[in-house]
Design goal:
This protein has ten helices and seven strands. It has 254 residues and is an alpha/beta fold. The chain has a single domain, classed as Thiamin diphosphate (ThDP)-binding fold, Pyr/PP domains (Rossmann fold, 3-Layer(aba) Sandwich). α1 packs across α7 and α3 packs across α4. The longest helix has 19 residues. It is globular and about 50 Å long.
Length: 254
Amino acid sequence: MSEQTKTIFSRPETLQETVTHYCPGCTHGVIHRLVAEVIDELNIRERTVGVAPVGCSVLIYNYFNCDFLEAPHGRAPALATGFKRLRPDMIVFTYQGDGDLASIGMGEIVHAANRGEKFTTIFVNNAIYGMTGGQMAPTTLPGQITTTCPAGRIVEQVGEPIRMVELLATLNTPAYLERVAVNSPLQIIKARKAIKKAFQYQVEGRCFSLVEVLSTCPTNWGKTPAEATRWLEENMMPYYPLGRVKTPERSEGN
């Protein structure tokens, strides 16, 4: 009797087999895989369109086996709005970093959420500008050193870091907003569940959804991958608490 083997873990169909351009230890690859797994599980790949940002993930279309649009810096929500309104039968998601979404694209994401546009946003927060050399971002922590604040972020001069899900939660429009992290296997599992929930709400035509993912940037933080993971846990997670901030059920009940 021959022994049969069973595959229990493989590359998602929505994820292309290609060499990564991301830095060693960067967790963009983990987040890409979670999004791809969810698209496969929901069986929506053939009607999914992603919107690529400007930033480290500007080349995200090289990694996904689905259609993509490229947006000008910060304008992914505007492009997603236009496409989703034109083709409401499609599943549309934006994938944006903190510089793209919380700085130059702040107006776009706030108004898209306020209008209740029914697309999904994956917001990667690594507290720094990655692609352009490690400058201070709207999410850079107090005292955190970057190339444009070598003495650390001075709150009295530039204000507090922006908590995006809390900011968007103040809008009356129903939405799904959650913050997760990818620093450990347990947190990765929770992140996957949140990303699936966000896409599921769009499949159901329910609401705008945004999942903020706390991510590492070892290169621009000047740390090893292991050190970067610890820094996220010890510094980012206390300031950016994980958890579900808003659901459409809670919004509709108010």
